[in-house]
Design brief:
By secondary structure, the protein is α+β, with helices and mostly antiparallel strands. Helix content is 30%, strand content 34%. The chain has one domain: Gcn5-related N-acetyltransferase (GNAT) (Aminopeptidase).
Length: 105
């Protein structure tokens, strides 16, 4: 059975969640803080050898949990995050107001 660990790496104006499978880096999801106090989810990468193992979804869930904990909204520009958030009505409240207006939500 695989051991999966996700760590949160924070810098002053950006951060990322990095996932490890059996102590081997498998991918990440990253964000940058915006001037309005929300953040832009701007990239997700799962390395080829780990695709098909639901790694991206686990990273996405970590990002959603972080947004809820910090009480901030997300302006997604990463295609994976955009697609996944738009399919998940339970997280519409986490979408940045500008994103909602621009996408008629």
């Amino acid at each position: 059975m695989d051991v999966i660990k996700i760590i949160h790496v924070k810098d002053e104006d950006k951060g990322r969640f990095v996932v490890f499978v059996n102590d081997i880096e498998a991918g990440y999801i990253k964000y940058e803080w915006m001037e309005n106090g929300n953040f832009n989810a701007n990239g997700t990468l799962v390395y080829d050898e780990f695709k098909g193992k639901n790694i991206g979804k686990q990273l996405y869930n970590a990002l959603m949990n972080f947004a809820r904990e910090e009480n901030v909204e997300i302006y997604p520009t990463c295609p994976f995050v955009v697609k996944t958030m738009l399919r998940d009505k339970a997280v519409y409240d986490l979408l940045d107001d500008d994103f909602k207006k621009e996408n008629d939500l």
